[in-house]
# Entry
Amino acid sequence: MNPLLARLHPYPFERWRELTRDIVPPAHLRPIGLGIGEPRHATPALIEEALMGALPLLSSYPATAGEPALREAIAGWVQRRYGVALDAATQVLPVNGSREALFSLAQTVIDPTQPGATVVCPNPFYQIYEGAALLAGAQTHFVPSLPERNFAADWGAVSQATWARTQLLYVCSPGNPTGAVMPLAEWQQVFELSDRHGFVIASDECYSEIYFGDEPPLGSLEAAKALGRDDLRNLVALTSLSKRSNVPGLRSGFVAGDRELMKAFLLYRTYHGSAMGGMVQRASLAAWNDEAHVRANRELYRAKFAQVTPLLARALDVALPDAAFYLWAGVPGPRGATGEADEVAFARGLLAQYNVAVLPGRLLAREVPGASPANPGQGRIRLALVAPLAECVEAAHRIVSFTESL
# Structure
């Protein structure tokens, strides 16, 4: 067996199942799941129709690079959304969801023969970043976060020696689980660090189309253009249709950026056997060419957050995020040795007494020695408002009732 497999940590949902194995929720209350970030809005009819209309393509092998029409549609969307002109032939690749691409990009970029090969990750974070780094033969370095700035990564806390060993930096904006969006000044900081030390930036942007203000979130490609980095050097942006278009089962997204990185990534993917099926490509093309369903989807989330956030604010430390469909909420309760509330006990009690599932924050983060708190997820829970409006509102009322009972 590959010895690197032994370095992997259990996935957060696996850990949560173990932590709740002994709990029998009350049967008279219907279960409400806010733990898993799986979109539950209806899939748009235009995507279903395109998928079914492409059934004849099952008889043909798809090209790893994807159909030219799909790459052109993606480049067109990037132009409309971010004002960035991409060469569809050399700067765009369709992928089987951003999760697959986030993982395989590390296998392309990392050179494990270099001493101390390092991947830098935000904290809290999406666990694929860590798994991709470990299986590529690198070590992970978790950046301390700043609770007073909505848990933004404190890039300045990373030593120059660590940056010198860094080969890949994962960023997530809008962030999972905080919903925070990186401003232009922060992008300038990471671009300057990349120029100084030569590492690749992988920008995970799968929540970019779910936002609550008038202006859409700033993306990495847009930030690069604003800062005069038209060659997109050492930058790869990754996004997905799963959240934007409510098709998590389609497994469709794209990567775009630096031509040389995209060339190497295509070579890796050719051998990896990760070509997107022809039916999925046609459905994806229809999705990227339509914005009406995206606006309707965004309004559904806005309605939920508008009702749920003020309800929860009666009992929890919570505020409307910049974007994404999560609430990153501080919980009350007995304080542990670190002075933070025990969010695992809170989440267990909520499930046991009110049949509402949320995810304890510490399962989405790692301890950073010297940071305060050491694990930035301690004392917080992640709530994914993916259920229908009525369920989310009912869950909020149950959470308030549970909190008042403590």
About this structure: The mean pLDDT is 95.
